[in-house]
Specification:
- By secondary structure, this protein is an alpha+beta fold.
- It is built from 14 helices and 18 strands.
- The chain folds into two domains: 100 residues, Orthogonal Bundle (Helix Hairpins), CATH 1.10.287; 303 residues, 2-Layer Sandwich (BirA Bifunctional Protein, domain 2), CATH 3.30.930.
- A hairpin with a 2-residue loop joins strand 14 and strand 15.
- The radius of gyration is 28 Å and the shape is elongated.
- The protein starts with a helix and ends in a 5-residue tail after the last strand.
Length: 427
């Protein structure tokens, strides 16, 4: 969330950002009004404390003088003031809770380079990579390829877990593991520490990294333990240093995490989302950086460069897009997406998101670094390296052969024990 000082000293910046997003200013006005009421209640309580302290000095004098009547009168006054202070404390707590609940819904301030647009149609192309594959036959969709090669069993997974779960089999399962190993090794070689996070988080930590009002509907709530299965390793890795003051010498903290990810993916989806494109469980390799504020925009470009190099090594055709104001979520100040070409579907689809969240998550997580003038919020950044299920779809569709087999990208052959093609599964 935004630092409360932004509302007090730079409300015009927040209003201008809302104008870019096409959002009315009601929540900004509500935060400012509640904050003013909170500050007044704090001020009034401080004034009463001074009055109580002055009166309390009279108690000692009356007691020393043996004046029981004066003692009782002053004590009654002190007790009355204490009661008023308590009431103001309750009021202040209620005002602060209401203020911060609204403040947590106020989105991050967008970077000036974010293009204007009402929805995804306003996203702009940043760059294009690789050659679009050409075929002497009509390319199949990944749905057709997994069915003819028996690489995925959806019906049996539905029996044991429900729709949008799957059994991954044979060479495609081996390719999934090869992608995980390759992506972790690649990002690790760039100086990122490999971390395997817990697959569940408590609500307190989750509220620090995302807007649960928007996100909770797609998450699995594990009861009675009050935990959530993670939707991406970004969330536990970013929350790893919550409630901590980080020594500046440790910055930047760079991590590459691998984890299972769980999403309910509620709502209606089209035919193109079937197969393993939009599923309830998948594996994702994620890049995380916790940085000094002065360095975060350079690191945002570094994350994108890592993605581009990795996906170029996979030999895939894709584009990078700059997400516009109307398609931006609550948390990021700027976001790039990588969209891979799917020849079977004849369209580009998102496979990577790369975001700079500036101090938005850090404020919610109370995650600071030490400075000579006190503690200040760090910046947090995240980027997919590979979500393996979607990468498998892109590989299958772009590397498919006329007989239905799929070539293995060159950089993965060694991790496939020299196998150059994915062969059909027998059952």
């Amino acid at each position: 969330m935004l630092d409360i000082r932004m509302f007090r000293d730079h409300a015009d910046v927040i209003r201008a950002d809302y104008d870019k997003r096409g959002i009315p200013h009601d929540s900004i006005d509500a935060v400012i009004s509640l904050d003013e009421a909170w500050r007044k209640s704090q001020y009034d309580a401080d004034q009463l404390r001074r009055k109580r302290n002055e009166a309390a000095r009279g108690i000692a004098a009356a007691k020393k003088a043996g004046d029981e009547e004066a003692f009782a009168l002053i004590k009654s006054e002190v007790d009355s003031i204490a009661s008023e202070i308590e009431k103001l404390g309750v009021k202040a707590e209620q005002l602060q809770t209401e203020r911060d609940a609204i403040r947590m819904s106020v989105p991050n301030i967008l970077h000036e380079s974010v293009p204007a647009g009402n929805d995804e149609e306003g996203n702009t192309q940043h760059s294009m990579h690789g050659m679009k594959p050409e075929f002497s036959f009509d390319p199949r969709t990944h749905n057709e390829l997994i069915e003819m090669n028996k690489w995925v069993d959806l019906p049996r997974a539905a029996k044991v877990a429900g729709s949008r779960f799957y059994f991954l089999k044979g060479d495609l399962a081996r390719l999934d593991l090869a992608l995980q190993q390759y992506a972790v090794d690649f990002i690790n070689s760039k100086g990122y520490t490999f971390v395997q996070p817990p697959a569940m988080m408590n609500r307190h930590a989750y509220e620090g990294v995302t807007d649960l009002g928007d996100f909770e509907s797609v998450m699995y709530n594990v009861q009675p333990d009050g935990l959530y299965t993670i939707a991406t390793s970004e969330h536990p890795l970013t929350a790893m240093f919550m409630d901590e003051v980080i020594e500046p010498s440790l910055l930047p903290i760079k991590m590459v995490g691998v984890s299972p990810c769980f999403r309910r993916e509620v709502g209606a989806h089209g035919q193109g989302d079937k197969g393993i494109w939009r599923v309830h469980q998948f594996t994702k390799i994620e890049q995380i950086i916790i940085s000094h504020p002065d360095d975060s925009w350079d690191f945002h470009e570094e994350l994108l460069t890592n993605c581009v190099e990795l996906w170029n090594n996979l030999g895939l055709h894709y584009e990078v897009v700059n997400i516009c104001t109307g398609d931006m979520g609550t948390v990021a100040a700027k976001k790039y997406d990588l969209e891979a070409w799917l020849p079977g579907r004849g369209e580009y689809k998102e496979v990577v998101s790369c975001s700079n969240c500036t101090d938005y998550q850090a404020n919610r997580l109370r995650m600071r670094y030490r400075t000579p003038d006190g503690n200040s919020a760090v910046h947090t950044l995240n980027s997919t390296a590979v979500a393996t299920s979607r990468a498998l779809v892109a590989i299958m569709e772009q590397y498919q052969l006329e007989d239905g087999r799929v070539q293995v990208p060159e950089c993965l052959i060694s991790r496939m024990n020299g196998k150059t093609h994915l062969e059909p599964c027998e059952w």
